[in-house]
Amino acid sequence: MRWLQRLLRRQPPRESATVFWLYVRCGRCGEAIAVRVDRRYELVSELRDPGEEGPAYTLHKDIVGNRCFQRITVALAFDHRLQVIERHIHGGTFLSEEEYRSQTRPPAAGQPSEA
Ligand SMILES: [Zn+2]
Questions:
Q1: Rounded to the nearest whole angstrom, what is the distance from the C-alpha of residue 91 to the centroid of ligand 1?
Q2: Is there a domain that residue 9 lies in?
Q3: Would 31 disulfide with which of 8, 26, 27, 103, CB 3.0-4.6 Å?
Q4: What value does the mean pLDDT take over residues 78-102?
Q5: What is the whole-number distance in angstroms between the Cα of residue 71 and the centre of ligand 1?
Q6: Would residue 2 count as lying in a domain?
Q7: Which residue has the higher pLDDT, 78 or 5?
Q8: 90 assigned to some structural domain
Q9: How many domains does the chain have?
Q10: What is the pLDDT of residue 82?
Q11: CA 65 distance to own-chain centroid
């Protein structure tokens, strides 16, 4: 049963290095939506030659919220270090993590209403 021990001993992948979150706002109903992206599985390699212009990886994602059926299409471009270098969205707008949190959490009492 060695194979089983090996299987059980296998470490879970470290999420932080490969997973990040996209935050978008639905263009129709205004719903704030968080989408999990796994760089290992969802990025498509553009197979560039070294030094060639353009993104090394791209990501396309269709997002539908819970409140309506609006389809939000997101396109991201990454350099070879997997940093986002370009992003486009249709059907909604990008939110920062802070904006997303302020949309999904009721404002604390006593806080000024201005952002
Ligand atoms: Zn919506």
A1: 9
A2: no
A3: 26
A4: 94
A5: 8
A6: no
A7: 78
A8: yes
A9: 1
A10: 85
A11: 14
